[in-house]
Amino acid sequence: MRASDRAYAALRDEIVDGDLAAGTVLGEVEQSARLGVSRTPLREALSRLAADGLVAAHSGRGLVVTDVPVEHIVHLFEVRGALEEQAARLAARRRHVAVFEGLQAELRRAPDLLDADDPAQNEYYALVARLDAAIDDAVQNPYLVATLAGVRTHVARIRRLSHDDPERLREAAREHLMIVDAIVDGSESLAAHATQLHLHRSLKNILGSIERNPQ
């Protein structure tokens, strides 16, 4: 892996995971030493992060990690809804049924994972990631998939601002199963509707969590 790719991946993960909080200054000297890369590949990495919207220039401070205001969350979900609903439609049209039948069987067992300990819950999150990947593969549209990848980066940051609610997680698992059921059946409209419902409830939960637990 190139030094710039390594630095980009490390910084991106730290921003998404919340290890580098909003407002953190990313000084070139400090970060190049910390990540073990020279300043040229670090600048390449920072340029990519700026293009992602994860860092921005601030007068007198250099590059800092961007904030995620509440209004940006709403805007992001507006874009996400349009993309995810279309992806669900295309997945229902172009899917390999066996792939989604396998995910369907796993999602039916999801409540057992969510009623268990934290490591088992991590298995559920990994299952959701595999569902996203399967939908991306089924879509067969690299432009849509690439745009969705950028949106999901910011969605991952937003999840860190909310607090896990066990009941919401179980509800989300049922919603994911509805999406997969529709894709298995080849129902484009139902897949899009189930996705719309899931995103609506997710946004409502995130905004409610932020309101209850202001940063």
How would you portray this structure in words?
The protein has 215 residues and is mainly α. The protein has 2 domains: 3-65, Orthogonal Bundle (Arc Repressor Mutant, subunit A), CATH 1.10.10; 70-212, GntR ligand-binding domain-like (Four Helix Bundle (Hemerythrin (Met), subunit A), Up-down Bundle). It contains 10 helices and 2 strands. Strands 1-2 form a two-stranded antiparallel ribbon. The longest helix has 25 residues, at 70-94. The two termini are 36 Å apart. The mean pLDDT is 90.
CATH architecture call of the largest domain = Up-down Bundle
Poorly predicted runs? none
Average pLDDT: 90
Report the principal-axis shape. globular
- Total discrete domains: 2
**What is the helix fraction of residues, given as a range?**
over 70%
Total helical elements = 10
In the sheet with the most strands, the strands line up as: 1-2
Secondary structure blueprint with pairings:
Elements: H1 3-17, H2 28-35, H3 39-52, E1 55-58, E2 62-65, H4 70-94, H5 97-108, H6 110-114, H7 118-139, H8 142-161, H9 166-185, H10 188-212
Antiparallel strand pairs: 1-2
Helix pairs in contact: 1-3, 4-7, 4-8, 4-9, 4-10, 5-7, 5-9, 9-10
Short description:
77% of the residues lie in helices and 4% in strands.
